[in-house]
Design brief:
The structure holds three protein chains of three kinds. Chain A is of the alpha+beta class. Chain A is built from 15 helices and 19 strands. The radius of gyration of chain C is 24 Å and the shape is elongated. Chain C has twelve helices and no strands. Classes of the chains: A alpha+beta, B mainly alpha, C mainly alpha.
Chain lengths: 521, 299, 299
């Protein structure tokens, strides 16, 4: 009898506590509402396997999930996989246990068949997938909820490749994959993510709603992974191609959230009541990529002269709209935020703004003022801005720069042709593993086909021990500043803003995510 | 929009025979009595002088960047303020007149030359007429600015590409005008007489028909000048005109668009300059039309 | 029309740049791009692509957008509404301001009314529309907060929001044209008032007011209708810039982004559609002309 009483008491306490928690929960996080997000235009596709375009990355990560995701420290943590994989002693077999009872948006349960098909399609089409699949022998289903990956040779990049959010290893239902060949854009967008797509009207909006059968993980939210709960009813992505218009629309409240804002607006947004400016770190480091296959910039001395002439402070400050909070001077090839790979090497020949050294190098290179074709675009304003400032600094040191301002499509096409340029502008985002830094390898425009770098990168890919890998990575960094395959500028941050009633947004993320966000209107 | 008046203007215009020297002096006197011509002409002249002496008039280089001076409001050192790169707006606006006048002027000359050639040939050789007019109709079937944008996408940015594109866009209007004038004149007695005398086709076209086209051509040319100036600015504004680092009004307005809240002066002053240029050319064109077109001449 | 089609196809394929590279994103490599090109049939020789284009066109098929991944006809259909609404609204603004202004100015030629209104109209013609819209946005949206900065709402779903979104674009697009219409309306009015039957009416001792409104107005309207038709055609071009500035999801924005993305089928589609619209408008003008002007009767 007494025992029963205590049990009852315990149950009552527990129920009351639960009620309290849920009540607290309810006051803290309101359910419902429409969140209007202004972003910079139309995605080329919502097929995550298909493109590295940032806009597709942001959108698709709300719809799909991979086996793993990156946490706040950029480390892989399980997402659709139950736990970290079991790896065989020889390091060649990875076994992934899947979570059970995970539903796709079409109501079907996710099984190993879907995962195998998705990984294979990703391996055939995605930039990162192809990189990993060069070492993969086979991926097979072990049972309904287990998948095995067999490698040809050992690599340290399996987990990170499966976890990165760009051009990512999203899991689709097998039926979708059977329908669309890897080289064909999928036009049925079904995933397991916390949001589900209801409407895509190009140039008007992309409408997503809460996926009610979503099963959040138990672990606390961290980075792009962990517990995801959707509080809002509807997520409405509004394409607003003009950055200044996005700023104006967040000021007037036409948008609840806006990404990629004009950096000049930072001060004003800080002063605007009801608007919360958010600095997105990291964003890009700015870079001038040299053509090392043909033409003037094949000359290492000339590339070193370019590097020596640059004065980063005025360039970065101008690009950042005059705001010191929106840029950072750092020479590491991995961002500060990417702690495991951030290097702190002193005395690298970076930001020297040494005009005499540049002039000397130009002389040694035998440069006679031949025009250097430097391509940039205004579609990304920051590219044009730093290219223009670069032109002036280089010409003061004795270069002749032929600045060619073209549209992005032309730039992307021309940069694949070694006859058409000497240098071009772009930005480097967050690379989560040293082997992912595309500009160091021979397969990306600019064609850094350097024996030493190739050797070090191959070692990095095969090596499993973090300490050894880091030492190698430092070596790569030093070699980088000697060979100058590209000229690294400073880190530029992104500017986004939300209205004050948007709560729970993780401001530390490089790319926005709207799970765990609620509206307090 | 740039093509504004052209289409209906050509409908209104008819040939104004101007031959004798005495008529010429009378004409000049009449032009000088017309307020529109005088005001428009003098403002335009000032613009031309500004363009010619832009270097001497500008306090700073329009291309040198001064990052530390970015977005300064109008002051004594920068009368019209500075832009995002610390360039002096006054110097940019002064130098911008060069691009505008160059594009406008050369486009006017090219469309006039091309238009006269095509128009006369079409107006005189009836067999070629059909083919030529089909092509012209084809070109006229697109909105002018759309065609210009498409041509610029093919050619890439650059002053001469802008001129080329705009000349192609506006050529058909002039050609049509000349053709219709030629058609109306070719049945007149003195042309028929020349034909009977055995003069060659081209000789007749140039000797007898062309002089009648001068008036309408001048009026049309002035308006084309105005549209070309405006179209150049629109192309620059859309980012497909002259390269963005070349000082032109459209480019400066485009760069001012981003910072209109922080620095209204960046887009305001080149916009005013553009309006002024348009105003002077339109006044000039109106005045010329009133004076040269006998039908609209006031008694 | 065949000429138009071919010109468009060749023009567009001459644009340098690769649609595939844009779609695949900056980090795609050469092999991926090659694969995707084959998938889209872009690796075929140009004449073969052209022939296929003709064949599809005959079936009323404009092809499939590379970027948007849907039939071009569907993409056009989706963007038609905003452009039509914008053009109708702008035309409304233009006529509403333009016709009364011109009639009043013409009826009282030489008066202060006339001079004041015509100075305004001249300014209206010369102020660049895109610059005007920037200033409108700055003043009415950002400073005063009366109207939304940019965007679009469907008239069918939410007429109030639609009107708020459409007001500034329609005014900035229609303003230039209203000035144009005013000027034409004025000169037509003057022309008509000189006619004999007006003198007769006056001689009969009719009140000046009824002379103007009963006799002159209707006759002055005839050329004005032509001008309104031309205005509509011009608005198609003007809408491109307005849609960009105000972020309206219409055909103008579609073609600009399609050019930037090298989405050839879409560019072709929009250009063909505008060309067809142009011709249709011209036809309509002829018909209306015949209806209004009793002198013209088609058998």
């Amino acid at each position: 009898m007494r025992q029963r009483k205590t049990t009852w008491a315990a149950i009552i306490v527990a129920v009351v506590a639960l009620c309290l928690i849920s009540v607290l929960d309810a006051t803290a996080q309101k359910k419902g509402g429409v969140l209007k997000v202004g972003n910079l235009g139309e995605p080329p596709t919502l097929d995550a396997h298909w493109t590295t375009a940032t806009i597709t990355e942001v959108l698709t990560n709300h719809l799909y999930e991979g086996l793993y995701a990156l946490d706040a420290r950029s480390q892989p943590i399980p997402m659709l996989a139950e736990a970290m994989p079991a790896v065989s002693k020889d390091g060649l077999t990875y076994t992934f246990k899947l979570r059970q009872g995970i539903k796709f948006h079409n109501g079907k349960e996710m099984t190993s068949a879907d995962v195998v098909a998705s990984l294979n399609r990703w391996g055939a089409q995605s930039t990162y997938g192809k990189g990993l699949y060069a070492r993969v022998a086979e991926v097979r289903a072990v049972d309904k909820y287990a998948v095995q990956m067999q490698l040809k040779e050992k690599t340290a990049t399996v987990l990170i490749s499966l976890a990165i959010p760009n051009n990512f290893a999203a899991i689709y239902p097998k039926e979708v994959i059977d329908k669309f060949k890897p080289a064909e854009k999928a036009t049925e967008w079904i995933g397991t993510g916390p949001f589900k797509l209801v409407e895509w009207k190009p140039d008007r909006h992309i409408k997503m709603v809460r996926f009610d059968d979503y099963q959040p993980r138990k672990e606390a939210a961290s980075g792009y992974g962990g517990r995801k709960v959707v509080h809002i009813n509807e997520l409405l992505w509004m394409p607003v191609p003009d950055a200044a218009t996005r700023v104006a629309q967040i000021e007037t409240g036409e948008l609840d959230f806006a990404d990629d804002l004009d950096l000049n607006a930072y001060d004003r947004l800080k002063k605007t009541a009801g608007v919360q400016p958010i600095v997105a770190k990291p964003y890009y480091w700015l870079v001038a990529v040299f053509n090392k296959k043909e033409g003037l910039m094949t000359n290492q001395k000339l590339r070193q002269a370019w590097q020596a002439a640059l004065d980063m402070e005025p360039i970065m400050k101008n690009v950042a709209g005059g705001h010191a909070e929106l840029y950072r001077l750092d020479s590491s090839l991995a961002f500060v935020e990417n702690a495991p790979w951030h290097t702190k090497i002193k005395g690298l020949p970076w930001n020297e703004h040494n005009r005499d050294k540049a002039k000397r190098l130009l002389r040694e290179a035998g440069y006679k003022g031949e025009p250097i074709r430097f391509m940039t675009t205004q579609e990304y304003k920051w590219m044009y801005d730093f290219a223009l400032l670069t032109k002036q600094q280089l010409e003061d040191a004795g270069f002749t720069i032929d600045l060619q301002v073209v549209d992005w499509a032309t730039l992307v096409k021309r940069r694949n042709n070694h006859k058409e340029y000497d240098a071009f502008t772009t930005g480097m985002g967050n690379f989560y593993d040293p082997t992912h830094h595309i500009y160091l390898g021979p397969n990306w425009p600019g064609w850094t086909d350097d024996e030493d770098l190739n050797r070090m990168l191959a070692e990095l890919a095969g090596e499993g021990d973090y300490k050894k890998r880091f030492a190698l990575w430092e070596q790569v960094t030093r070699a980088f500043y000697d060979k100058v395959p590209v000229a690294r500028y400073g880190d530029l941050f992104g500017l986004r803003a939300s209205r004050a009633h948007v709560k729970g947004f993780d401001t530390t993320l490089m790319r926005p995510r709207f799970h765990n966000v609620w509206l307090d209107k | 929009m740039p093509e504004s008046v052209a289409v209906n203007e050509s409908a209104v215009l008819a040939g104004a025979p101007v031959t004798a020297a005495g008529a010429r002096t009378r004409l000049v006197r009449r032009l000088l009595r017309n307020h529109s011509v005088v005001i428009g002409g003098s403002v335009f002249l000032v613009l031309v002088l500004v363009a010619l002496f832009a270097d001497a008039l500008s306090p700073y280089s329009p291309t040198r960047l001064y990052p530390a001076q970015r977005l300064k409001p109008p002051s004594l050192s920068n009368l019209l303020g500075t832009d995002e790169f610390g360039r002096d707006i006054a110097s940019l606006v002064l130098h911008g007149s060069r691009v505008s006048l160059l594009v406008g002027g050369v486009t006017m000359v090219l469309t006039s030359l091309g238009g006269v050639l095509i128009g006369l040939v079409a107006g005189y050789y009836r067999r070629l007429d059909l083919v030529i007019m089909r092509v012209m109709d084809g070109l006229m079937a697109f909105p002018a600015i759309l065609l210009a944008i498409a041509l610029m996408a093919v050619r890439g940015p650059g002053v001469w590409n802008v001129i080329f594109s705009l000349s192609i866009v506006y050529l058909p209007r002039t050609a049509m005008l000349i053709r219709s004038t030629a058609l109306s004149v070719r049945e007149l007695d003195y042309v028929l007489a020349a034909q009977a005398l055995g003069r060659g086709g081209l000789a007749i076209a140039f000797r007898h028909i062309l002089p009648n086209c001068v008036g309408p051509l001048l009026v049309q040319g002035t308006f084309i000048f105005a549209y070309a100036v405006l179209a150049e600015a629109i192309l620059g504004f859309l980012g497909v005109g002259v390269p963005p680092y070349v000082p032109s009004w459209g480019n400066v307005i485009a760069s001012g668009k981003n910072v209109i809240r922080e620095a209204f002066w960046v887009s305001a002053f080149p916009g005013l300059a553009l309006t002024l240029a348009g105003l002077s050319l339109n006044l000039l064109g109106d005045g010329l039309r009133d004076t040269l077109d006998p039908r609209l001449r006031r008694e | 029309m065949l000429v138009v089609v071919t010109v468009v196809f060749l023009l567009i394929h001459l644009i340098p740049g690769d649609p595939v590279a844009v779609i695949l994103g900056p980090e795609a490599n050469a092999q991926q791009i090659e694969d995707a090109r084959r998938e889209l049939g872009l690796d075929r020789p140009l004449h073969e692509q052209l022939l296929r284009f003709y064949a599809r066109l005959l079936r009323g098929d404009l092809g499939r957008s590379y970027f948007l991944d849907r039939p071009v006809t569907q993409a056009l259909w989706e963007r038609a509404e905003p452009t039509l609404v914008l053009m109708t609204a702008a035309l409304f603004v233009a006529v509403l301001i333009g016709v009364p202004t011109g009639i009043v100015a013409g009826a009282y030629q030489g008066s202060w009314w006339d001079r004041g209104l015509m100075t305004l109209a001249l300014l209206g013609v010369c102020v660049p529309g895109f610059w005007l819209s920037l200033n409108f946005i700055y003043l009415f949206s950002v400073r005063l907060g009366w109207l939304p900065v940019a965007g679009y709402a469907s008239v069918l779903q939410d007429p109030v929001a639609a009107a708020r979104y459409m007001l500034l674009p329609a005014v900035s697009l229609g303003f230039n044209q209203s000035a144009l219409i005013a000027r034409i309306a004025r000169s037509c009015m003057i022309e008509v008032l000189r006619q004999d039957y007006i003198r007769t009416a006056r001689a009969k001792g009719l009140a000046e007011r009824s002379v103007i409104f009963l006799h002159a107005f209707r006759n002055a309207l005839v050329p004005v209708v032509t001008v309104i038709g031309i205005t509509m055609a011009i608005l198609i071009g003007g809408a491109v810039v307005t849609e960009i500035v105000f972020n309206i999801p219409g055909l103008g924005r579609l073609i600009i982004s399609a050019i930037l993305r090298r989405d050839y089928p879409v560019v072709q589609g929009v250009v063909l559609l505008t060309a067809a619209a142009y011709m249709l408008i011209n036809l309509m003008v002829d018909v209306v002309y015949a209806y209004i002007d009793p002198r013209i009767r088609y058998a």
